[in-house]
Design a protein that fits this description.
This is TetR family transcriptional regulator. Helices cover 80% and strands 0% of the residues. It has 234 residues and is mainly alpha-helical. Helix 1 packs across helix 6 and helix 2 packs across helix 3. The longest helix has 30 residues. 29% of the residues are buried.
Length: 234
């Protein structure tokens, strides 16, 4: 019996995500220029002809891959920000980065993708849409800029250029998470054994902002305690 249009749509969406997931894995290993459609098809365990049915060119595939990753990242970032609105700026930064650390533990490709974006966005989007793509990839730094600026107004963070401070904070965080990712075990929320790893990741970020250890460490302990209670409640 032929599938109806609704079932066909579900099949197409599942196949699309299968291809994008495979493309992400290949991209992390080889970068944009080192990735070819044959390797993506092999990773997805699909015939090459079927891959080309969904995406006519590698560039078309990567535009959708980047768009998909931006949408996923934006949704997660927005959810984190919704949960920190009533906290002070140091707690907001801690909660935000703790959440990012957790999602990276569930899929190490998340931070690896973030590290590759600046090198490949122009080649993928071209001169016409490169700025739009770059702005979408900059969502985390923009979120951090808002939080840091508020912290400066509250006197919790020494005054400097908030955009530059956010850029430094995010760059150090991404680099440190990438370095420590081999120690992560793949759970969505860091367990007690991983708190020291997170502490190692985050300490230089807060030092760069001029925030004293006692202040950011107290916020870390608070965030860890809150997440432990959530885990126990599940």
């Amino acid at each position: 019996m032929p599938r109806n249009s609704e079932k066909n749509a579900l099949v197409r969406e599942a196949r699309r995500k299968q291809i994008l997931d495979a493309a992400l894995t290949v991209y992390i290993r080889f970068g944009y220029h080192g990735t070819d459609m044959d390797t993506v098809a092999e990773q997805a365990q699909l015939a090459k002809g079927l891959l080309y049915y969904y995406y006519k060119t590698k560039k078309e595939l990567f535009v959708e891959l980047y768009t998909w990753m931006y949408e996923e990242s934006y949704s997660f970032s927005a959810a984190l920000l919704d949960n920190v609105e009533r906290r002070n700026s140091i707690e907001q930064l801690m909660y935000y980065t703790y959440g990012m650390f957790g999602v990276n533990r569930s899929d190490l490709r998340f931070m690896q993708f973030s590290m590759r974006v600046p090198f490949d966005a122009y080649a993928i989007f071209g001169p016409e849409k490169w700025e739009e793509g770059a702005q979408k990839s900059d969502m985390h730094r923009k979120a951090l800029t808002t939080i840091i600026e508020k912290g400066m107004e509250q006197g919790l963070i020494p005054k400097t250029n908030p955009g530059s401070a956010a850029n430094s904070f995010w760059s150090v965080f991404v680099a440190n998470v990438f370095e420590y990712s081999k120690l992560m075990t793949g759970n969505e929320v860091p367990h007690k054994s991983d708190i020291q790893t997170f502490k190692n990741v985050i300490q230089f970020c807060f030092q760069g902002l001029g925030v004293e250890y006692a202040i950011w460490n107290a916020c870390l302990e608070k965030v860890v305690a809150e997440n432990s209670k959530k885990e126990e409640a599940l």
